[in-house]
Design a protein that fits this description.
heterodimer, A: about 725 residues, five-stranded mixed beta sheet, globular, B: about 200 residues, alpha+beta, 7 helices, about 35% helix, about 15% strand
Chain lengths: ~725, ~200
């Protein structure tokens, strides 16, 4: 194993800024995304969604819609009783055979009762999309409207309407209505040992993934074999989920996803769209293309879970943490798709911690994984809290972080290497923290005030199973078969670069075969920032296997080919791998208008060895800008009177635009801990993790008023300062 | 001017209300363009118009349903799928094309409004097999991540550089603000456009 943080010898291909191998397709419109596929005789499908946040369907009359010329088939809960396994899971963990058996609160593709505005009620396949849309208007649904509840804390009150018979606390993986609880030491002892104890409450909003490509799916059957073109982050798990849900063997399902227009966590696993399209196609006996409208996508596909976080923190007078207690509530919508965890406490060293998180059913749009699932919102809460504690102890927040941040994973397990201190020291210096930070928050005179904020992060970079196959033909072409899709992070290019490096051949000799379960081996999928680490490692192993073949048999001639393959499942010996980082932000707040402008933004990251600095910078910048949006703009607002979502769309939810986005400076601290492909660690999600908290803390430093509810919009700032 | 006449007849609102038979737009003879038979199967109640548009320099004639948007015609009937639909409601810019040289959202223009006009799409940006300097700069600066917004970004940028060949960064941000990128690679897009502008002035 290489020594920690030792200087790394440069490599030939890996580590050099490289334009994507498929960039030309992306800038000429030739890249084929799901909706660009068109099959002969294909029908078009649309979905009718619940107009109510909670209602029982008494009667559904599809006769008029069916009579419309051009309508081919209609599915409702009455003729389609398929369970979307990954859509509702006890405990919210990965969907599999075991969890399928025990999950109690199942999500059907069409539910009755419907439990949120947007719950699918019917799907129509027709000769074209206009007829399908027309048909939706002819479906008559007789609803018995039920009471609804939108906020997680309200949903746990005894008089709240029960969304499921067992109540609104979502069941865990053992099917018990228990909050997710983590304890170390005893917080009461910790508070007794503290000189000062602080308490506060923070809330975060539902933020939609809002990837540019709306969900669409094309299904076609040849006999009993189903082919799905679908935008998914993981063709392998999309296939296994779909086979499980439809009750057919995996070999009878082919998933194709090559170019994909973003997902950020909401195209993991399979989707209800996949199942609906497959069933429409089966019933109609023709290929079907289902298209989600943007509103469909915004309310029918999950976003980040909103949270309420109550913290109690005990410290010594010199700023050493003694105890942290969190009671948190996560609004999961009416189906449990993911964990609803609230991360952050694990990144502090503290002898006594207690975290009790209630994942709660509500009648809002379903929540699930979105870039760094539990961290950006959790980190906003705890980092705001800790920032506040630092000021109250008259400490510089940087000093407080350095004193209390994680040094071992959960205070127990050593990291494979550790560079958090370096990230913070080097970042603070480059950012000129001492110059930009105001020891007295809100002290600038005049209506325009400046301030600086900081946050840090550690993000999992675990090893794991994956596969790769490399084939060499007589022409000297190396074909790398990997089960990745390219969701935007550049996986295809990264795999080609790693293969070129491992094979010691030029990048131009390498092609990548990807995104088709009939051609590619299993891959974990583009989620959890794992592709480079896991599949990249498999590529190196497959290259080694191929090199051994070449050594044994010589280079192939004629029609012969040589194939090297590998299915490694590397493990860490009692250590934890993590990427580290720190973000520094300077903002300017116009206290007359309530607007916040980011003046300077520095993101310092240790993601191990950087495979492709060009794409890695894009990932960091994008995550930081998304984080700014989450801090300042984005929200899916509901009308409390009728449970209707009011801002379902790009414009309403106020995504960041060209004009909002500041220049993000990126600094990499590279290291090789001896694991992963050439020492690569995770990048994709980690860049969003500290961004939200850093911006919020900068706003505090500028105006001297702690903003405790996301997003920090103009009205809230003006309200606070009024 | 035919286009304005039709524009007056068919408001977006009425269009959204459905296929009311209120518009007596003459349907013309069989079309030149091959159409998916599925799209005409139930069309007897739907007003249709034959339009002439020049797409990437090639004159085309097609009979369209009056409710079809420009992007629908480009993607479904001309098979030019480089133009993407991100929202279909004028919010994201993924469908941006140049209409008589000006960037427009092709999801928010009816095809009939483009009658007699000239459309440039992403497929027409490279000339004679040579990438436009903007395309080259997008590649070099890693503009596209997922790439779904990229066609629209390129067409907006093309429109900008046509009317202002030497923009500064703020000009670029202002001109491009109607083109969302959820991967949020805004920094790289701006850099790429400035680099292309610089290269072009040499």
């Amino acid at each position: 194993m290489r020594q920690q943080n030792a200087p790394m010898p440069p490599l030939k291909t890996v580590g050099h800024a490289t334009p994507r191998i498929d960039a030309a397709e992306r800038v000429t419109g030739k890249a084929t995304y799901t909706n660009d596929v068109r099959l002969p005789g294909m029908l078009y499908a649309r979905i009718l969604r619940s107009a109510h946040p909670h209602a029982r369907i008494r009667r559904i009359d599809i006769s008029k819609a069916l009579a419309l010329p051009g309508v081919k088939t209609i599915l409702t809960h009455e003729n389609c009783e398929i369970v979307w396994g990954a859509g509702g899971i006890s405990g919210g963990q990965q969907y599999n055979d075991d969890i399928k058996k025990i999950t109690k609160h199942r999500r059907y593709v069409f539910n009755n009762p419907v439990r949120f505005v947007g719950d699918p009620v019917a799907a129509v396949a027709a000769v074209n999309r206009h007829v399908a849309e027309e048909a939706l208007r002819l479906i008559q649904v007789d609803y018995e409207v039920l009471n609804f509840v939108l906020e997680p804390e309200e949903a746990l009150k005894p008089d709240a309407v029960k969304i499921w018979p067992e109540g609104n606390l979502s069941l865990n993986a053992q099917n018990q209505a228990q909050p997710a609880t983590t304890r170390r030491g005893n917080v009461e002892d910790g508070f007794r040992a503290s000189d000062v104890v602080f308490e506060d409450r923070y809330t975060t909003a539902f933020v939609h993934n809002a990837q540019m490509e709306p969900r669409s799916c094309i299904a076609t059957w040849e006999g009993d074999k189903l082919t799905l073109y679908t935008p998914t982050q993981g063709i392998s798990n999309c296939r296994s989920d779909t086979a499980r849900d439809l009750g057919i063997p995996q070999e009878k399902v082919q998933i194709i996803c090559q170019y994909m227009g973003g997902g950020f966590g909401n195209k993991n696993q399979n989707q209800d769209a996949d199942l609906i399209t497959a069933m429409l196609s089966k019933q109609a006996g023709a290929p079907v293309k289902l298209e989600f409208t943007r509103k469909d996508d915004f309310i029918g596909v999950h976003g980040r879970w909103p949270t309420v976080q109550y913290y109690k923190v005990g410290v010594s007078r010199d700023g050493v943490l003694k105890a942290i207690q969190l009671r948190g509530y996560s609004g999961m919508g009416p189906y449990r798709k993911n964990t609803g965890a609230i991360g952050g406490i694990d990144l502090y060293q503290c002898p006594h911690i207690e975290s009790v998180i209630y994942p709660v059913y509500t009648n809002k749009t379903v929540s699930g994984n979105f870039r760094g699932p539990e961290y950006p919102q959790g980190f906003y809460g705890i980092e705001s809290m800790m920032d506040d504690v630092a000021y109250k102890l008259k400490m510089d927040p940087v000093e407080f972080i350095l004193k209390n941040m994680t040094r071992k994973s959960r205070d127990e397990v050593p990291y494979t290497n550790y560079s958090l201190e370096e990230c913070i020291h080097r970042g603070a210096e480059a950012f000129e923290w001492k110059k930009r930070w105001r020891p007295q928050p809100g002290s600038d005179g005049g209506p325009i005030k400046r301030g600086a904020g900081v946050s840090f992060m550690a993000f999992r970079s675990a090893l794991g199973r994956s596969n790769a196959v490399i084939r060499l033909d007589a022409k000297g072409k190396y074909s790398v078969f990997v089960g990745v899709t390219d969701i935007g992070a550049g996986a295809k290019t990264t795999m080609a670069m790693i293969a070129a490096e491992a094979l010691a051949v030029p990048l131009s000799k390498v092609e990548v075969v990807w995104g088709d379960t009939d051609r590619c081996p299993y891959s974990v999928g583009e989620s959890g920032s794992r592709t480079t680490i896991q599949t990249g490692y498999a590529v190196i192993q497959a290259a080694d296997a191929l090199k051994r073949q070449i050594a044994e048999k010589g280079l192939p001639t004629g029609q012969n080919v040589l194939v090297g393959s590998a299915s490694p499942n590397p493990v860490l010996d009692g250590k934890v791998r993590a990427a580290f980082g720190a973000h520094f932000v300077e903002v300017e707040v116009d206290t007359d208008l309530g607007t916040v402008r980011v003046l300077k933004y520095l993101a310092v990251h240790d993601s191990g060895r950087i495979m492709n600095p060009l794409a890695a910078k894009s990932q960091i910048k994008g995550g930081a800008i998304m984080g700014i949006g989450m801090a300042l703009h984005e929200d899916l607002i509901y009308d409390r009177r009728n449970g209707q979502p009011l801002t379902a769309g790009f414009y309403g939810a106020r995504l960041m635009t060209h004009r909002d986005a500041p220049e993000i400076e990126v600094m990499f601290i590279e290291s090789d801990d001896g694991y992963g492909p050439y020492g690569a660690k995770s990048i994709g999600e980690s860049s969003k993790v500290p961004a939200v908290a850093a911006v919020a803390n900068a706003v505090f430093n500028a105006i001297g008023w702690r903003m405790k509810d996301l997003p920090i919009t103009r009205d809230k700032i003006l309200g606070a300062l009024a | 001017m035919a286009k304005t006449k039709i524009k007056k007849k068919i408001s977006r609102r009425k269009f959204l209300q459905g296929t009311g038979a209120a518009f007596a737009v003459a349907t013309a003879a069989p079309t030149v363009e091959a159409q998916n038979p599925a799209t005409i199967a139930t069309a007897e109640a739907v007003p249709r118009t034959t339009i002439r548009i020049t797409v990437n320099g090639t004159p085309r004639r097609i009979e369209v349903e009056d409710r079809w948007t420009l992007v629908e015609v480009l993607r479904d009937h001309f098979g030019m799928t480089g133009t993407k639909i991100g929202c279909d409601r004028g919010e994201c810019g993924a469908c941006t094309v140049l209409l008589d040289g000006k960037p427009v959202y092709s999801c928010s223009n009816l095809a009939v409004w483009a009658d007699g006009r000239s459309v440039q799409t992403i497929e027409g940006l490279a000339q004679n097999g040579r990438l436009d300097p903007l395309q080259q700069a997008f590649i070099e600066h890693d503009g596209p991540q997922c790439g779904f917004c990229t066609s629209g970004q390129l067409m907006s940028a093309k429109g900008l550089l046509t009317r202002n060949p030497h923009p500064n960064a703020n000009d670029v941000r202002a001109a491009m603000t109607g083109n969302l990128c959820r991967c949020s690679n805004y920094n790289h897009y701006v850099e790429a456009i400035l680099a292309a502008a610089k290269g072009g002035s040499r």
